[in-house]
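Following up on my earlier thread - several people asked me to post the actual chain instead of describing it. Fair enough. Here it is, all 463 residues.
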Amino acid sequence: MEHGRLQSANPNPEAADLKSGILPTGAWLRAVALAGALLAGQVAASDQSPPCEVGSYRLDNGDTLDIGPGAAGQLRWRATDGSTGALASEDDGTWTSTLGWTERPDGHRVSFDDCGRGGIRFDRTAGQRVPLQQIDTRFQGSGVTLAGRLTLPPGNDPVPLVVLVHGAERDSALERYSLQREFAGAGIGVFAYDKRGTGASGGRYTQDYLTLAIDAIHAMREARRLAGARAGRVGYQGGSQGGWVAPLAARIEPVDFVIVSFGLAVSPLEEDREAIAFDMQRGGFGPEAAAGAMAIADATARVIESGFIEGYAQLESVKAKYGDEPWYPSVRGNFTWYLLGNDEATVRKEAPHLVYGIPAHYDPMPVLETLDVPQLWALGGQDRDAPPGETLRRLAALQRDGRPIVTALFPGADHGMYEFETGPDGERVSTRQPEGYFRVMADFILGGPLEPGYGTAELSSHP
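Reply from S.P.:
Thanks for posting it. Predicted structure:
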């Protein structure tokens, strides 16, 4: 799941914001209060056909293994400890694995009996498919019909229910979100849905947070309707851009919990500046380079704030001034890389279509300062796209004010909550998710006390 960033062929193709305008605190909260008037409706049915091996498996050693779709012709396995690999089929009917996304063999071998219906073997450990209960649906969002799916653990007992809120990605959540099976395998009900303009959902793709929050509320209502008596405590898990949307949805219509994964408590423009500052820090550059990089950030912000209409002369000026500096190639940010890498004509033509609806100056603090819902914020200490420094400072202040917030900082994780290795070209390749990341989320949803430690996570909670 990704933040609001420009989508393109960049190694991190995430979309950026582009529309402007911050509401004063009072006006913003009035808008939130009035948003409830936009809510209504439901309907039914969706058709997704994943590979027959896709599912949740309980191994004989007690571990749970998720098998999901991978790249073309491949599958992907995920374990609850965060380890993962891509699976490619062999002539003998088995599947061989590669480490994370590295394409290096990791020695694991998987086989399925009757396409998983008769069980699985992961290396030497056998297992059986967990009989998850799935209900596909179509329901009414804010003026559009959305496609969703409720996934429940086996049995009839009440279970916690979590709605997965999108990042900025345009992929189908119903096809790609492994958490819908992973959480269900841990005894949690899950509702996933395709964001408007993606997958099987209707409407125009947007990154307008209020519209998306209202869609999320409709999704929650549909999830509760379908779960019926099985719905226990309910809440949201929002990754990346969903970290702006999920708290807003909870502020409009309260729930029992909110999880923000690799999201932020700053605006998209502040995010871009923090990311550029982190670029300079990681590159080992000094104050002079940092000042030049911030001048570039000022120039790109002006283009964005104008809706890609103005600011090109200033942008060309800083590109000419700093283009030969040794630190210049390291300036990445979230959307600045796109403006630096394309000419004015291309940006004017493409950018308005690449993003739609995000307020670049959106301030999440008026929502967070008045949100009494228990929250878990899981953040990555090496997140290049959403550096957590200022967000952690703001969350700590909210904790001191008594807000029910827990933070879990995984120091070695990048955006998406992935650990990585760095190649000779400086590019990162994801290897796995951190030990403890899934467990802390599952424990928080289940509502019991959290453990003292989750892998390398640095935990902090309100006094």
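The first strand starts at residue 55 and ends at 59. That should answer part of your original question.
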